[in-house]
Design a protein that fits this description.
With 275 residues, the chain is α/β, with parallel strands linked by helices. The chain contains 11 helices and 10 strands. Bound molecules: S-adenosylmethionine (SAM).
Length: 275
Amino acid sequence: MYVVATPIGNAADITLRALDTLKRADAIACEDTRVTSKLMGIHGVATPLVSYHEHNAAKMRPVLIGRMQAGETIALVSDAGTPLVSDPGYKLVRACVEAGVPVTALPGPSAALAGLVLSGLPSDRFLFAGFLPNKSAARRTSLGELTAVPATLVFYESPQRLAESLADMAAVLGPREAAVARELTKLYEEVRRGPLPDLAAHYDSAGPPKGEVVVVVAPPGAEAEAQAVDVDSALRDALSRLSVRDAAAEVALMTGRPKRDVYARALELSREDGR
Ligand code: SAM
């Protein structure tokens, strides 16, 4: 099986090898046949399309594996960018590996990498965090798990949730430098850079941007220390009113920090203060 990257916006962003492979394959497995047939039409690829998406994947996997075991060549694409990167394909690749069907990747565009390289933020170490949860409480918990990661963070986000997500990032990760990369590779490509609270305020007043976005956030730096101090002062305040357990629960919820870590710090502080 060939895992083939396709454009994330500009239809010309496809490799010569990808086009050649797509033309020669017996079938192209794709998420949405309408989306892929449009792209294939632009590039003169007439290979039959088979739909493979989250809702029919369990049923289609054995069918596709059977066809490949019988000697056919299948190319896997997603609607845009690199399959498996916040897109279907992982279980199919795994099934190929288990069935002894050879798999090859044909790399190409991915919004995560395009956003990272345009962000102007450190690129020596990065963590692709995909989409955050839709609800704020769950989102803050997920962000809390990332606070100590010593790497640039890359997120996919919907334009409708962008302002709320940036506000949660600012609350949990602190005033780190960040970038919102929009409409990558397209005519109105735009990268807005600044500290998280400023970006959150901008999108709160400007409303949801048009098109698709990637959010890139700098690794923890000086503000991580400031934030640790904030946790301490929030804990001191909570400990003056509540038990250690309740104070830790309140501050963990407020900061998105892992409960266990906040509880351990609350215990230390309460001992230091002779509570
Ligand atoms: N597999 C794709 C890839 O490799 O980039 C990503 C698929 S994921 C379902 C779609 C998300 O990718 C969008 O919600 C957006 O966050 C991001 N994205 C895709 N195309 C983009 C573009 N042209 N500009 C900015 N973000 C984009």
